[in-house]
Amino acid sequence: MKKIYIILVLILACLTIEDINAAKVRVREKRIEKAAPADRFVFAAKAGFNLGGTAPMGLPAEIRTINSFKPTFSFTISGTAQYNFNNKWGLQSGIKFDIKGMQTDTSVKNYQLVVSMDGSTIEGVFTGDVTTKVRNNYITIPLLAVYDISPRWDLKFGGYASFMVNGEFSGTATNGYMRDGSPIGPRVDGVDAVYDFTDDMRKVDAGVQVGVDFIPYKHLLISGDLTWGCIPLFKSDFTAMSFNMYNVYFNIGFGYVF
Amino acid sequence: MRKSIKQIIFTLVLPLMVFTSCIKDELPNAEADIVDVLLGKDVIISKKVENERITIFISPGAYGDRKNITDISFVLSEGAKIIRGNDNFDYSTSHEIEVISEDGNWKKTHEVRILDMAFPTEYYFENWSENRSTTGVYDDCFEKLMDEDGNVSDLYIWASGNMGYRITGNGKKPSDYPTYKTLSQDDAHNGAYATILETRYVGAIGQGSPLAAGNLFIGEFSGKGINIMKEQMKATRFGMPFNKKPKSLKVWFKYKSGGSINIYNADGDITGIRTTDNDNSGNNQNIENKDYAAIYAVMFDNVKAKELYKGKNYLDGKTILSSEAEVGRAILSDNDKYGTPTNEEGYPNEYLFKELPFTFSKQIDASRLANYEYSIAIVFSSSYYGAEFQGAPGSKLWIDDVELICE
What we know:
Structural class of chain A: mainly beta
Strand content of chain B: 35-45%
Strand order of the largest sheet of chain A: 1-3-4-5-6-8-9-10
Order of helices and strands of chain A: HHEEEEEEEEEE
Structural class of chain B: mainly beta
Oligomer: heterodimer
């Protein structure tokens, strides 16, 4: 949460110097109108971070409480190219090195899970505490329509495709009991187990993306983008968890406009 | 400009809204257990409540012919209901009770047996059933007991660690498990079957056991209240109440040692060989540190055990041969425990007979004996130190035609 406040303060600080730079921006606007096609390209390099979760859409009833949620530090580096058709509309794409991660600690009831306990794989339903650690590295290509709503503000919407370089999806199941196979199977108490579904994740993700670009100075760019995955994180034959999970992350980026 | 600020705040707030989506109402329970069985009269001598099988021994005659036990009550999983078997109270034979879970998705049929306390003393290992679940199937052996009215009941007094092994997922068919019935009649001493106990290598591990010794014992194997994978020694609950003073244990067996007594670390690697022996038999000359068979019976004071072990009236893998509650034992301690005669291929082809005498370390009180305040545990294992995860994979013990001779 702290991070969000810092960002908000930064953005507000930038807004206050809006008037000073307004004149310069207007110059830029005019330049676009008169520019030759080659000059209609705007390039930027950005660094930022992702904040969000790899989560089910709507919490399944098996999850009883969320004891903690930690958005882990997930940085991003990207290069973007934008082509402006006119002074209102443009098209933006690029390439982004994208880390999406989080850590959660939840209490669950009758949660379908395959765990590895003391070297053995146990498939069944678990009641107790489950922690999850996600840290996935993607190469992401966004494709966005850009609408210039004001001299400093651009609204973006479109989609993205991500390719996983490497990743991790793992966790623990503790302080509870497992029923072997199904809720009527033999009961195993005192479960202290780990699970690792890393190899069950899909290598691709794609989804929708909406965001804004804010250009407080001629070369400074601040962006905020919500990326919402539409492809389930796990392969379709994956049955160790009973619900689908999706990447839903908010990216805050700071960039240099060339 | 204002509009823009609104937009950016909206964009920031949106994902937070997504993640704070409400915790849903708790789902109804999916479990369908009989957790406990209670009787109106205080006549229960012993009770074995397993996942799908419940055996209760009562004082003989306390409920007459047991055809009308109306004051029975069942403790079920939260919200579960009985849908079959609760409309008649005839417990003179096995009684099926079907329970449906609160959510209605799961049903489980439990075999409930209420038996006049009677304990067979001859065991031929001829009766076997398949214990099936979604994760595997293994052999369970049982005895048959005929009451005065000629009703025959299946008596599940024997237990093994097969349930724990099934959870590890290593067993594909019953004969992959550590405890199973003989596959051919030629391999039995008498009758159609004998029991085979075989030490299995489980694999690399966290903190559990890389080794599963075949075992068969009077008592119960239960994961209740413990981590069955980590605390296997506590899962073996040895002994059942007994009202006779034993004189000796007769047994037919054959044995092949799998090699030296390996000591494993948590990764399943062999870190050494056990060279010290403390089986308290007085015969501590272990031949080449070879893995050997455990064949013994222990009589103990179950009231004292209850005092010693916080209400547990049984001995477990840690205490079975070292408890103050013990009053006497019979144990195989001669060199035949290392192996029996083999044919040219090295296969043990000849059953040996042993009669192991009981030696008593404490006096037995006759009135307490009649009152079932002592318990008997007969224990067989393919690796003597199997409970400590030490032994040799491949050690194999055949047991047949056992008899407990009593005064």
